[in-house]
Amino acid sequence: MNFELNEDQSALAQSLSRLLADRYAFEKRRTLAASGAAHDEKTWAGLAELGLTALPVPEAHGGFGGGARDLLPVMQAFGRSLSMEPYLASTVLAGTALRLGADEATQARLLPGLASGERVLAWAHDEPAGRHAPLWVTTRAERRDGRWVLDGTKSNVLAAGAAGQFVVSARIAGAPADADGCALFLVDAGSAGVALREFRLVDETTAGELTLNAAVAEPLADPHDGAQARRAIEGATAAGIAAVCADMTGAAEAAFELAMEYLRTRKQFGRLIGENQALRHRAAEMLVALEMARSMAMAAAVAADDPQGEDSLLDLHRAKLSVGRNARLVAHGAIQLHGGIGMTEEYAVGHCLRRIHVLDQLFGDADAHAARLAAALN
Description:
The protein has 378 residues and is an alpha+beta fold. It contains 11 helices and 9 strands.
């Protein structure tokens, strides 16, 4: 498998890096977070202008039909800049759920706006009692007075405050963890019965708890086609795992670069601290971990693009487990090489660890994926 970027991918990655370097310089990012804004509207418009919001959307609906491998350098760039844009929530997660779980008419109505960046969606699937179970759904969908209504609570809905609509998983039959009996619905953020409690995660990105109380919802396809809904949920989860593996790798790259720059420039007792052999050995260990994270992020992208592959699901578990652990090792090492300054709010390296911590918890943490690997291999 050739993992080198082609000419178009390289040009796009370079353009994105320039945009994010300008809009998400560390002090600008701190100012944005302190302002209370969910994200930067000008940056979002810039992403749309570059065609990034259209990248994974099918060509029939105004996109470029890209997959997880096309998104790999994009998500790495978001991680390096610690971007707060709702790209994962809207373009990757909700977009994948729409592409796999909506009928043709619904796709034709919603995906062009997603591709242009004018429509921002959020993926509302996780629930408080789920504990990383990928198909745990207790939110109920019922037909009342000729329309579908939803009752339940969705937790940790990424970029919830920026979204105009939510793509929501709900159960029409079965027990909470059953593989079948789920359907996907579209819910307007301003509808009656929809309550959102917004909050910031430790990396300053936004999320929310979505409470639905007889909220009117539109089914994306036949609600009784549980197989299609399950494929969409599993596809969105796979795309999300691949995306956060790339994002974590980008954050680890940023932490590593900050640490290497510090070793090259910081002097102590008249000598560069980078001349200390113990610190150089630590840097070498960090580089090995970073290369492992990069390799496993690539493996996750390949697996997400080939959901029917014999080992695709196992590869996703392996990747999420490995990238999480190795990215943490790099970020912890970077903070320790900086010493006291690495622990301060005003320095970027600690924020890289915060980003990795948040992403490591999404779609199952390292322990959850280790348990799934053990169960699958026994």
